[in-house]
Amino acid sequence: MRKEKDIATIERRENDRSIVLQIKDLYKSFGDNHVLNGFNMKLYQGENLVIMGKSGSGKSVMIKCLVGLMEADKGIISVMNKDITQLDQNTMDDLRADIGFLFQGSALYDSMTVRENLEFPLRRHTDKFNEDMDTDELVEEALNNVGLIDAIDLMPSELSGGMKRRVALARTLILKPKIILYDEPTSGLDPITAKEIILLMQQIQETYNTSALIITHDVDCARVIADRMILLIDGINYAEGNFKDLAAMDDPKVKAFFKH
Amino acid sequence: MSYQVSLTYNLKSFFVEIGELSFFAGRFFKELFKRPFEFKELLRQCYFMGNKSLLLVAITGFIIGLVLTLQTRPTLVEFGAASWMPSMVGISIVREIGPMITALVCAGRIGSGIGAELGSMRVTEQIDAMEVSGTNPFKYLVVTRILATTLMLPLLVIVGDAIALYGSFLVENLKGNVSFMLYFNQVFDALEFGDIVPATIKSFFFGFAIGLVGCFKGYYCKKGTAGVGKAANSAVVFTSLLLFIIDFIAVFVADIFYEL
What we know:
The complex is a heterodimer of chains A (about 260) and B (about 260). With about 260 residues, chain A is α/β, with parallel strands linked by helices. Chain A has a domain at about 100-170. Chain A has ten helices and ten strands. Chain A has helices at about 1-15, 60-65, 90-95, 115-120, 135-145, 160-175, 190-210, 220-225, 245, 250-260, and strands at about 20-30, 35-45, 50, 75-80, 80-85, 100, 180-185, 210-215, 230-235, 235-240. In chain A, β9 (about 230-235) and β10 (about 235-240) form a beta hairpin. In chain A, α5 (about 135-145) packs across α6. Chain A is globular. Chain B is mostly helical. Chain B has helices at about 1-30, 40-80, 85-125, 125-130, 135-175, 180-190, 195-220, 225-260. In chain B, α1 crosses α5. The termini of chain B are far apart. The model of chain B has no long low-confidence stretch (mean pLDDT about 90). The interface between A and B is medium-sized, with 25 and 14 residues.
């Protein structure tokens, strides 16, 4: 009965909500190593989609193909109804203002202060804001949202791992993106800080009404944040559904992810 | 047989690298005239490279001037040609030793620094983060650095030459009681337009080579901290080799013009 209700919910969501990001038959190989073998996915407006997979399963490759950091061998990647494989550099750069990317290692520019790190993405996308855009105001707003306004003049080397992740999140938010891609947002963090980051991600989604694609192998993170999950195994979307459905599956490959 | 295979492989790698470096240089010229121009970053790099290398260039130049004079003086005195000392030292420093020593010092100081900096930015995904934010990292990081080394090296050569000549004067003053005016009058009498111009043009090429190789090695640094070290090291080795090749070509071309 519950399963029927869930299916109905998903179907209604497909009808009601617009797709903001879609991948069709994505293939990517490195020599003889076939990492992605026809991967498919859809991300709906306002949804948190978690993609789980083992290390080396191609999660990061997929997300890099999504933002144009890597070229796919075959397949269609559509971001807000634009096929990014067909876009020229300028249009792609414009589109990037709507896609935030939180890197696994935070990727803060270590020669710049926190303030300069946040100001950096604004240089290219001034047209997204009003002409009287106050950079300081935007920086302060983004830092307030991650609770790190006091760190504004610090260098990245003076920040802890959790603080770096928060600043990176603030840098992602400063352009007010419609989609946020998280690459292992809790990896390398202690359980308490990881929990704080997960809560922050939820809070950000409520504040900014973003859609999120979260790459992780942290089951606790997936349990809290996922509206829907995809298990990336053998280069394909092996299993799909909400957390409870996947956790209840008997397939040994799926089970391996959920046993503690 | 394995020696032949290894030699063939090394030669092939060398020519592949030369090809890739040529494409990299081509991309530099293509991006150089494209908007937006990163003047602020260019000035920062010029200041950084000029300021940080000045002391090293000055000390090296001073010692070269002292040593060259101390080593040459006894032979010239033996032949009764001690009065030719300022002319000989002036010409050799301005035409060859000054530009070459300054370039080699800067290859070690600036080239390795650029290789390590860009390499670590590549490894920690900072370059990817720039690209994802819609900023062209090649223009921001590479074009500014190559331009800065190309513009700053001739200035450093002038400073290095001046200090080397001053070092030489000190030895002459102590050993031969030659006055400052007499020494430098003889130096400038011996120098011709044809000595200064090719040396200055050569310095621009030296600066370009230092920036180009440092950026190339860092920008395409392989993953891992070992990759960063390798990028810095190979930037110095490859640049030094390239400097001697450029020097040979410059002397060869200048010689043709002398004969005309």
